[in-house]
Amino acid sequence: MAVTARRVPGPGPAPEARSSSLRMCLVLMLVGALLQGIRPLGGWAEAAIAGDYDADMPPLLAMASPYGSVSVAGLSFERLYPTEPPVQIHLQNTGCQFHGPAMQEDLFFDRRLGSFFSKTPSGKVVLADIPLEASPSMLAMAAPSGGEPLFAWLSGKVMGFSWHADTIQHTFAEGQDPSLLAASATGPSAGRALVKHGNTISLMVLVPGEIQKSGMAIDTTGAVAGLPGHFFLATATGWTWLLPNGTLIPTPLNEAVLRLAATRYLTADPDRVDLVVVTASRLLIYLGLGDDGTWQSVLTNFQPTSRNNLNLSLVPRVSLATLPTGYLYLHQGTSALWRVVYHPTRLLWQRVLGPSSMTLTGMGLVPVHGASAPGQPPEQWRLAVGMRTFTPGELLGCAGADPSIACHPTEAKWECAPGRVYSPLTSSAELCAGCADGYYRAPLPKQQYRCLPCPGAGCRACVAGVCVACAEGYLLERSAHGGGPPVTRCVSDCSPGFQAEGAVCRPATMPPVAVAFTKLPSLANGQTILSLTRSRAYAQGDQLYVSNASLEAPEPGALLVMLSDRSLGFLDMDQLLASPTSGPVSVTGISGSFFPVSSSTSLLELGPVVLPQGEVRLALVSMHGGQILAVVFQCVLSGSGPADECQLQVQSTSGPANISGTNPPRRLSPTVLAVGNQHFELNAAGSLVTVTDPDTSSSDIPSMGTHVDRLTGLPASWVYRMSGSQLIAQPWALLRVGDSRLKTADGLLIKPINPLPAEGMSPASGSTCLWGCPEAGRPAGASAPDAEGHADGGRTVRSRASGTGSFSFEPTGSWRPVYLDAGAARRSGPLPPGDVLVTGVLSHGGTWHWGVVNYSLGLEPQGRTRAIAGTSELLAPVGPLAGVTGNAPFHAVALRLAGLPEYPSALVVLHPAFLGVMLLHCPVGELACRPGPRHISPYPADLEQTGHESLGVEQLVGQPSRLPSGRPASINLLLVYRGLPATSFLVQMAIDSCPSGTYGPLCLACHGSCQTCTGPDAGDCVLPKCTAFLPSAPGVCLSACPAGLVADATGACLCHGSCAACASADGVGPFICTACPSGMAVAPAGEQQAGQCVSCHASCRECSAPGSAGACTGCLGSGMFLQPGGMCSGAVDCPAGTWPDGSMDECVACPTGCSACRDAVKCSACEAGFLFESVMQVCLPCAPECTACVGVPDNCLACRTGYRWEDGAPPTGTPPAGKCIFCGPSCASCQDDGQCLACTNGKLLTPAGTCTATCPSGTGPVAGGAVCGPCHDTCSLCTMAGVADSCVACVQGGLLLRHTEGASCVENCPNK
């Protein structure tokens, strides 16, 4: 095929250049890869082996994204405003609705997920007076100098321009049949359009107040717009350029132009464009067309019949691209898709292959523009079909950049690597950053992880060596065996004294919870309570106040209520708890009317947010039915002392606003509440903002937990919600800004069971956890073989043959997730301070049960944001209660408890048919918590069965209280019923067993020498207080903690305070840190603090070894960059061959072949053996025969070993460059005249300079060498050169004498 690449002075076809040889393919095959960071998957010969002679490069594999964006069907992309990125638009006669880019790449950079634009409209341009029939013809254009975009349209015989609710029309005469070809905006409310009617082209020019029309006698088959005011028209003999001044410049090609596209292929100059032209036999690319009516050069590629009829629908329009692409996607109908890559000597053709879902029918091109990242240009283009986009395999990470995925080139598919699970939005470096069942996640530098086996048989998920969830066929049990201390492990059947309840074995006897309802008298003013909330404000007279003490308290200390007259007041909790039945409940009223509504079903407080100079913001949110109202209060504290206070004043109000949520609002954090898929946040600026998640429904019920970002070491909030039967997690930082990648429709990618090969388990072999020992038996994560499934009560239940009464169940969308506090002091380092539980009602065995699924530590154990591993447990049967249904809405409230060390929080469920309470049991010294004592009871007889919307509940705090029986209350709740008649109840709960360290019905303190006891004396100890003990065996006192562990205040031997986790090889010691907090690393053996986490060098943010300035894996401080050797320095100190990447604060290696570069794409100098290409600023490899080259890759300055100068002598030009040719078969090196100097493949070098398998007559192999030398002068043939005893034949007159040393030639035969 012929190619041309010549500069021409003006319009017109360029002369052809010489044809390139097939050998050039080998030289240039990497060019396209360098332009977009995509490496070919093999040698150029692979295409020829496959019989694909139309391809110059191996196929480009396009991989399907995990989930889709807004469908490309019926929508298009345009840059509506010249300084803003492209948007996805939907044109209608009433307006242009658009979806803007919604990837917050400054927060999280990963373009592989496949969703780039907002699901809900970002905005709309309102249009008027456009006929409905005009919608299919509408074209959108950005005004070059800014202002509102312009729209051109055609309806019947009426053509018009519209912008921002204004329209100017032109009507064509009868008998004309106009069609709109192209349009271009030339300024605010100014533009041009080409309209074809018959054989005439009319230029329609929009000027103030009218459309001016001028005709041109051009028979065109199509037209495209270029720079503002420029058009290119296809004709039967070539193409014509229409300039803004009306000049027509024809370019004859002697054949019809089939298609045109104005784009940016190589031209970066904003005042010039490139034009792609397709004829029946050629592809022409005109480069650098400008306002002067000239172009700079043209590339011509003659097409074989097997690669003709090219379609340009996938070429990005010039209005969308601001940077050159360096490649084009072209397709032949539905038969083939090509990627055409630029090279200065030719165009390279690469076939694009993808999965079966990547069909050419309906394929589009999606612009992906935004911040740049290492190895990725800021403007990218993704192929798309329907709602699915496709990413080149290299950008997906198939070449090793993402070790968490495994790519299959023959199928153009990818999946998670063994041991991994798809876990989006946890790491920008890994798509499958989660660990499979049976493994836990250990962090590595640069947002990468490794998955290591959990200890013990059947363990599905673990943290710090403690199993928190078991595989199918196993039950989670904490018990003692063989006289040893209690340990948590996975068992096939429950031990004696335990019973199976779901997927756990719990003690057959559990401390019961006593519950008492006390009906409260009416309020003193005769009002009733509509809604209530805990508050950090308090009353001074009849005004709202806050103080430093009230704002800094661990929990809000007051109870704010809204009364039936819509006024606010503070309920006297101390009076209520001291004497709940002795008189009217006291409420201190607050002056003012804040919520002018007829009722309130929910009242929630958000905040506080403290701004500079002591300004305080606090918000109250009220909800009734489908409306929500909010009031933001503010004041400025008078000082920093605890008693310094200020009076709250109304800063702003909002609402009433309609909401679609059907469930009660939930406070997810002190500053965030959620109603369905709507979130309300009192942000850091003190403003109340609303965020809607379009990917979830209005019935969504989220929860929120705090984790530690392992990259920054800072707290990060995650939102937990149900997606079908799976618990998923989403980062609040992205949700709060509406990031488009917060999708949940990716369930087909979730494969929790994905074990590593056997050798993959070796890193943890022999490792022993801190809180127990592995159990012999099945490998980690193995499943029992006897599982079967059946449906029970509409819920999927998996039953097991072993384990009486055992079964596991999955929650549904009607269940409620809650985040229960485990006590921040209990978990240090990066471990989250709480657990996620999902609770609801299910039918099993013909009886309704209250159940939970406990996701201990949330996503932390395995790093999974999908299919998080949990343990299901039946809490209590509820069958005897009337009105129980599995999908009835209910309240699920998380409460923090005080004074109960082993029970830091409780779950309270207000179901229409019952009230349930469950205490979270967190034993002292253990990381894992579990459902503890629980109780359900019906409501009092004078509280009629009702729905959740009629119930409100809040925790009461203050002075200690007692149940009517005299027992101390552990929990006090105020339950409000808004029905008729309105009623309030004091609900008190007490645990029959006292917390550790106390005894008796009044839970009095044990003697100081006891951990647990039955009385006050030292002799009443059940477990003595040890100076040292392992948390897994609290009754076994140790003289000292094992090496590597330290005792806390209770004597529990825990990991060193510097560790995030630790382990021992044999369970005895020494224990060493296995994970460190941010900014620390494990000290190696031999150092003073060996096995502990020690601070990195002061210059390091992260490191692989403590204290060393050369062991940094991340740098601390602005302007510091990580060098390849592990040092941190300024940008100017980045070594040669690297460039300072500000997004990673790292000196990143330049692209292949670059000795110096500006960024991850563009080179400024090349290494030896590479050629600088100035247009795309890349380094091209010299031809394989060259050690260095100049001008073009095969113009050699020196020949590589195995090659010689084509002309037989070194070139003499300036510079001295020429062609190198192959020395010859089996010739390793040669002289310029072609004589070999050395041979390959075991061949022998002859004296004549050739390579042969056997030496020629008169020669033989030289001893120890690979050359042929003369035989001994008596031999004519020999087996070794110069050796008299190696003759095979003799010279004339000689006789061959064979003897024990070989054979030699003699003149006479010796006598016997």
From TrEMBL:
Residues 778-809 are annotated as: Disordered. Residues 799-809 have a biased composition (Polar residues). This is TNFR-Cys domain-containing protein. It comes from the Eukaryota. SUPFAM superfamilies: Growth factor receptor domain (SSF57184). InterPro entries: Furin_repeat, Giardia_VSA, Growth_fac_rcpt_cys_sf. Residues 1-40 form the signal peptide. Keywords: Signal.
